[in-house]
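Box 3.1 — From sequence to structure: Amino acid/amide ABC transporter ATP-binding protein 2 (HAAT family)
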Amino acid sequence: MSAGLALEGVHTHIGRYHILQGVDLDAPGGLTTMLLGRNGAGKTTTLRTIMGLWRASKGRIALGDRALHSLAASDVARLGVGYAPETMAVFSDLTVKENLILGARQGPMDDRRLAWIFGFFPALRKFWLSRAGSLSGGQKQMLSIARAIVEPRELLLIDEPTKGLAPAIVGALIDCLKEIKATGVTILLVEQNFRVAAEVGDEVRVMDNGRVVHRGSMRDLAADQRLQMRLLGLSLDSHQ
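Predicted structure (token representation):
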């Protein structure tokens, strides 16, 4: 089982804006932890700060016993952390194959793992030698996720993975995440689709105004509509 992730008193400033204001967050090893909250709560900033794309101005971030808060993003990635950003951030002038090669830091891509990825995202096989810039938005999202998982990771940070995906692909993504979790990978997942969050999440942390304001099991939150309304301003029934 992979190591757990812990943030203690993490602050992040972006220019003159104080976005994270003392985040205390844990993602237990080998489980999928959902990071939920209203727009602007600080979820994406939290993932980017963990990844080293934005530097924490105060506090501690650790994966197991390894401190991350002082590392550059490239060094965080070398520790086995995969990141699929909300913006997808694919290299438009490179092919699908070349994008995935960039994600394979440990050496040549494993054919069996690629076949496993293609089972969930067959469009990537179809457009293997096509420029990533020619893909649809949903296909770019698939590529971004595939690049994060092209090699086994210890920790996966995934931001809004179902955004722009057709329902059939959302189902494939859910199956993919469940299989990854079964291998013992720690996952921290931001997701606006509450039904997806309820299906794949073990734990949940809810953010508001740059802090974590709720922690518990995803099952308990999914069963409590009043708590959903208080924390998120919506209920599971609103996604019927």
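Summary of the box: The CA atoms of residues 24 and 143 lie 31 Å apart.
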